[in-house]
Every structure is written in C-alpha cells, then in structure tokens.
Amino acid sequence: MSTLPPCPKCNSEYTYQDGDQLVCPECAHEWQAGDGTEAADESRVIKDSVGNALQDGDSVTVIKDLKVKGSSLVVKVGTKVKNIRLVDGDHDIDCKIDGIGAMKLKSEFVRKV
C-alpha cells in the first residue's frame, strides 16, 4: 500500500512521486510533498490599487473610467460598488453596479472605501 497522500484537488489515491514533486495521474495536479500549497492558495490576499487587503462584502470605488466590453456603457471614476465578492481569475472581483448590472472587475482599478 502506498504511503503517499491523496491528491488535494480530486482526492485520487493513485498519486505518484516524480523527483521532489507528487503528481496525480487523473487530474494532472502537481504539488510539493508536505509544503501546504493547498492552504497557501486559499489564503491568497487580493489587494486594491493602493495595497489595502480586500474581503468579501467590502465597498470599493472605481479609480478609472472603465469601458464595458460589448456595449457603449462606461463605469465612471468615483462609482461606488457595494458588497463585492472575491473570486479566482484575472478579474478577481464579482459585483453588481447600479445602472449596469453584474460585472467582474480587476482589483487594480478599485480603491477600498
């Protein structure tokens, strides 16, 4: 029986060691043995344009005019966005803007209120 831990992404028991890394053959996830990579991913800190840490439920202000892709609308400087939700990806803020609707924003274009 293998003493290697199961895959942290898909919980597959068929992990194997490749050099100093562990590999899952089912989902192709690679990680260092015992380095706590899963915990580091969950504790990723998203910061606004001036370096303040953002959290779910915060209110932010837009610091630059942002064109809305696929329409003629523009999110103006100073627009206040309430109750943001942090998500993974390039656009790491999910929110609703009055007059525009649901939108994703990059944290580099907002400032915490």
TrEMBL record:
Organism whose genome encodes this protein: Ectopseudomonas hydrolytica
Alphabetical list of Pfam families matching this protein: YjdM (PF03831), Zn_Ribbon_YjdM (PF08274)
Family: Belongs to the YjdM family.
Domain Protein YjdM C-terminal: 46-113
Listed transmembrane segments: none
PANTHER family: PROTEIN YJDM, PROTEIN YJDM-RELATED
Name this protein carries in UniProt: Zinc ribbon domain-containing protein YjdM
Domain Protein YjdM N-terminal: 3-32
NCBIfam families: phnA (TIGR00686)
InterPro entries: YjdM, YjdM_C, YjdM_N
